[in-house]
Amino acid sequence: MTDSERTHGTDPASMSTRDVEKRWRDPAALRRAALYVVSAVGLAAIALAVFLATGASNVVVAAIVPGVCLVGAIGALVIGYRSYRHGGTWPIWQGAAWFLFASMLVSLSLPTLTVR
Q1: Rounded to whole angstroms, how far apart are CA atoms 25 and 30?
Q2: What is the average pLDDT across 87-113?
Q3: How far apart are CA 62 and CA 50, in angstroms?
Q4: Using only C-alpha atoms, what is the Rg of the chain?
Q5: How far apart are CA 37 and CA 45, in angstroms?
Q6: Which of 16, 22, 87, 91 shows the smallest number of beta carbons within 10 Å?
Q7: Which residues contact 30 (CB under 8 A, 6 or more apart)?
């Protein structure tokens, strides 16, 4: 094993050690994940504003809000998996995905507002 493999985390033994110790610090990845979550929540808020502006009577428009959160969460998991495969800080992206999944569950009540 070369020094480059040890420092860049391409050695399988160093990757498993890094997974166990949980002392990751990657401010750049945290900023990217936070920006990703804020943009996904912003798009969901715009969809919510459209839903409320149309009179809260269209089921399809109401389903867009949880749909945006679901697509954002799946996207965060994909980015997290890619980060894991490259030896990066994947738990940041997993946390972003869990937040977006929770937001999706909360917003799933919107389509029920259209049924009167």
Answers
A1: 9
A2: 92
A3: 9
A4: 19
A5: 12
A6: 22
A7: 92
Q: What is the mean pLDDT of residues 103-115?
A: 88
Structure pTM? Answer: 0.78
- C-alpha 102/C-alpha 54 separation (Å) is 25
pLDDT given at position 21? 61
CA distance 30 to 45: 22
The span from the CA of 94 to the CA of 79, in Å, is 9
CA angle centred on 56, ends 54 and 58, rounded to 5°: 80
Closest CA to 108 of 78, 63, 72: 63
The answer for residues whose C-beta is within 8 angstroms of residue 83's C-beta and 6 or more apart is 29, 89, 90, 92, 93
What's the rounded Cα separation, in Å, for the pair 78 and 75?
5
| 90 close to 83: Cβ distance less than 8 angstroms | yes
